[in-house]
Design goal:
This protein is an alpha/beta fold. Helix content is 31%, strand content 15%. The two termini are 28 Å apart.
């Protein structure tokens, strides 16, 4: 039987070339994001399989009930809070995940941090527009304090790069112990407030949950130095978007690097698109050739295993 497989948010139109898809699976990439649930229900009505990237597209119970043909839902990564797993099971939909490398978000974190510290975008734009020759003074990394919120798979790798730059690295999370921090050669901050007050660069690498949602609000951002930089490549909801917009607009911090947003894609005309002192990228943390080959390659493995009656990497 020929199966129909939808690939959501294939913005670069690369899914077909990233894996050896079975010839009896009709692959249909969606290059435009579909945000409206009614439109999504209509678009996916005739598909047996859906491949979705990250947690950008919600699959609540109401939507799953409108997709009677859907039998296999594949998400990139091994955790997806946008899928109602209980409802999926009730409708006989198998939900599977894939591996996801921590390396691409680590690299993007440093791209944003270095871009901010050395004014790369501003200087590049000035150079191309025949503007001033040198208009910024770079912020040094060596000897400066890097504060990490989270020291897991990604945060620990960011810490090692910071140490290689000669930075003083501290970390904090609700569950982080001094012993675990010492294993990575960093110090555990006494508390969140201490880390924010003392850091020259703060980078967010926490999982989103009840304790981390809205963790950095107006009061917390007010603790940052006027010369500090904030980078968030984790989850948008950890940092209050309105509070962040206020501090960059008012110049109360030196700048921010952001890869994640409350709404994705970020709507045209959104104030974060034009905010000063903000280096923003369209959720590129996971977007790399190697990661895409993993996502789509393992999606194919998941399809083949599911058809054989032995699904791989089942979620949650």
């Amino acid at each position: 039987m020929r199966l129909r497989c939808a690939v959501l948010d294939d913005f670069q139109n690369v899914a077909a070339g990233c894996a050896d898809w079975p010839p009896d699976v009709e692959l249909v990439p969606f290059r435009e994001h579909i945000a409206d649930e009614d439109e999504l229900a209509r678009a996916l009505a005739d598909f047996d399989i859906v491949v979705t990237l990250r947690e950008r597209v919600p699959f609540p119970a109401a939507l799953l009930a409108r997709l009677p043909r859907l039998k296999l839902l594949i998400a990139s990564g091994m955790r997806n809070g946008a899928i109602d797993h209980t409802a999926a099971e009730a409708h006989g939909i198998t939900v599977c995940g894939t591996a996801s490398s921590p390396t691409p978000p680590v690299e993007l974190t440093w791209a944003l941090l270095l871009g901010l510290a050395r004014g790369v975008v501003q200087e590049n734009n000035a150079l191309r527009a025949d503007g001033p020759w040198q208009s910024t003074v770079g912020a040094d990394l060596h000897g400066r304090a890097l504060g990490l919120l989270g020291l897991g798979r990604i945060g620990a790798r960011v810490a090692r790069v910071g140490l290689a730059f000669g930075m003083r690295v501290t970390a904090w999370s609700h569950n982080l112990t001094p012993e675990r921090a010492a294993e990575e050669g960093v110090e555990r901050a006494a508390g969140l407030e201490d880390l924010l007050r003392e850091s020259d660069f703060v980078s967010v690498h926490l999982a989103l949950g009840d304790r981390t949602r809205g963790l950095l609000g107006a009061a917390e951002l007010a603790l940052l130095k006027p010369t500090a930089y904030l980078v968030n490549t984790s989850r948008a909801a950890i940092v209050d978007q309105e509070a962040l917009l206020a501090v960059v607009r008012e110049g109360r911090i030196a700048g921010a690097g952001v890869d994640v947003f409350d709404r994705e894609p970020l709507p045209a005309g959104h104030p974060l698109r034009t905010a000063p002192r903000l280096l923003a990228t369209p959720h590129l943390g996971y977007v790399s050739e190697a990661n895409y080959r993993t996502y789509y390659g393992q999606a194919v493995e998941n399809i083949q295993a599911w058809r054989a009656g032995s699904p791989l990497r089942r979620l949650p």
